[in-house]
Amino acid sequence: MNNILSCSAGCVLALVGSAASSQSTELDPLEVDLELVLAADRSGSMSADLRSSQRLGFAAAFRDRELQRAIVSGPIGKIAVLYFEWSDRADQEVIIPWTVLASAEDMNAFANTLQHAAIASDGGETSISAAMMFAVEELETNRFSSYRRVVDISGNGRNSSGQPVEIGLRALRAVGATVNGLALPETTYGNAGPYDKLFTGFDGPIEDYYRREVIGGPGAFAIVVDPDNGFADEILRKLVLEVAWNGSTNDFHGRKPATMMTTETPSFR
Fold first, then answer.
1. Is residue 187 part of a domain?
2. What is the DSSP string of 101-140?
3. For the segment 228-243, what is each residue's pLDDT rounded down to a tens digit?
4. What is d(CA 222, CA 205) in angstroms, rounded to the nearest whole number?
5. Which residues are 92's β-sheet partners?
6. What is the residue-averaged pLDDT of the chain?
7. CA distance linking residue 240 with residue 244, whole number of Å
8. DSSP for 50-99, written as a single string
């Protein structure tokens, strides 16, 4: 009888311990080499062709073997990626939620989902700051842990809605994220008068704006997309650099392109 009671008590303790261990495992964050947020502009300054090219460029990059090799070659061999699109301060839509990429199959599936998701037909003003704050929330509430966090802002317009960009950038730096930029071709409106200046480079080229206002953090950089060369190559180059970055602000694995600009910004960045 005592043996039965002893066994019963032991079994109960074992079950409780197993349940606690299981619960702990479920609650523990999953370690990855990189938490990567892809934040893509779909505001009114982005034409339908630009939105489509941007989406297809990201999809093509994740199918490329060079990026796939870079992702699985990290110390842990996997990254976590979120893709969302944004325009004004009230418009941020997750297209693909946080997804672990640990194999070519994962990355091909990610690319296929991204390519075939519906693309919004219109957009509002441009709130880079709201996109940044949305990225902060996503980074702080996900189930991952990493020694690196990167937010990749792509767009072709200046912040025209919501808080100043500096507030969003400070918030991202506070949670340990580096912010990189992908400067897309600007939309022009011919002789549209004052409206033309809302979107085009009256304060300098868009790439200079991204360098001054948007990017920040260790090794932060922006790449300019040359429409004559297409989106896919520049997006691929940028993602490989982000995944494979080794901690040096000067060493980009021999891949620093002529269209890259590193940050020259205040110390908080």
1. yes
2. E-SHHHHHHHHHHHHHS---S------HHHHHHHHHHHHH
3. 777 889 999 999 999 9
4. 13
5. 86
6. 82
7. 6
8. HHHHHHHHHHHHHH-HHHHHHHHTSSSS-EEEEEEEE-STT-EEEEEEEE
Helix orientation angle between 65-72 and 232-244, rounded to the nearest 10 degrees: 10
Dihedrals φ, ψ of 7, to 5°?
A: -65, -40
Query: Is 123 domain-assigned?
Result: yes
Residue 157 lies in a domain: yes
Is residue 247 very low, low, confident or very high in pLDDT (cuts 50, 70, 90)? low
Give the number of domains in the chain: 1
Amino acid identity of residue 264, one-letter, is: E
CATH number at residue 121: 3.40.50.410
Q: Structural domain of residue 133, as residue ranges?
A: 30-262
The sign of the CA dihedral 227, 233, 239, 242 is negative
**11 within domain boundaries:** no
Closest CA to 132 of 240, 210, 231: 210
With beta carbons less than 8 A apart as the criterion, state whether 227 and 188 touch.
no
pLDDT digits (tens, 9 = 90+) for 105-154: 999 999 999 999 999 877 889 999 999 999 999 999 999 999 999 999 99
CB atoms within 10 A of CB 242: 22
CB atoms inside a 10 Å sphere around CB 56: 18
What is the distance between the alpha carbons of residues 62 and 71, in angstroms, rounded to a whole number? 10
Model pTM score: 0.81
pLDDT at 58: 96
Contact residues for 156 (Cβ-Cβ < 8 A; gap 6+): 41, 45, 46, 50, 183, 184, 185, 186, 187, 199, 206
